[in-house]
Specification:
Blueprint: H1 3-31, H2 38-45, H3 49-55, H4 59-80, H5 88-109, H6 112-118, H7 122-144, H8 154-166, H9 174-189
């Protein structure tokens, strides 16, 4: 098969998948999770039901694919938040700020039953491991640089940061998110040895 044809088919498949996921997100936001059917998704996406079924077996699969895409976007945002030339402590601070703002924003857009449903599964576990490893590596580097405490293991500090900043989802205003990040960072620098 010619390369141009293959690229065109791959682009079409990606566009159909994206349209279905976007349609699912819009329908859930408008009608709630329970009311969404494959027919509604197909209609909202502007594709036939038979085409939709070629890509997804059911509405849950569309929702899971959408969530995986959201998680990947968030992880990419966290990676992009860092300047690779900056010291580890500066990169860590940028990642923690970005993570807290993502938590703050996400809680307002898909909490409750949707969050409970979405945050089960292997894709979430993989993303959490990747995120924890990323933060842990930044912390370990900042400890080696002498910018963070060395009396607590980097993996424990990474877990502390991520759990603490998950609370940003419950903070009503962005200023509160900033304060939460400041307090979390203060916990990393106390008792430096």
């Amino acid at each position: 098969m010619p390369k141009l044809w293959t690229e065109t088919i791959d682009a079409h498949r990606a566009a159909v998948r994206d349209a279905a996921m976007d349609a699912m997100a819009a329908l859930v936001a408008e009608h709630g999770l329970i009311a969404v059917t494959m027919s509604q998704i197909a209609e909202q996406a502007g594709i036939g039901r038979a085409t939709l079924y070629k890509y997804f077996p059911d509405a849950q699969a569309v929702l899971t694919a959408w969530h995986e895409r959201q998680i990947t976007t968030h992880l990419d945002q966290l990676t992009a938040a860092v300047d690779p030339a900056a010291p580890a402590i500066v990169r860590l601070e940028a990642v923690l700020h970005s993570y807290a703002h993502i938590q703050h924003h996400s809680a307002r857009h898909h909490g409750g039953e949707l969050a409970a449903l979405l945050h089960r599964g292997e894709h979430v576990d993989r993303a959490q491991q990747r995120l924890r490893g990323f933060v842990q590596d930044l912390i370990a580097e900042a400890v080696r640089d002498g910018d963070l405490r060395g009396d607590v293991a980097a993996d424990e500090l990474a877990t502390y940061c991520l759990h603490a900043l998950t609370a940003a989802g419950t903070v009503p205003r962005p200023e509160g998110v900033q304060r939460l990040v400041t307090v979390t960072l203060a916990g990393l620098t106390a008792s430096r040895r």
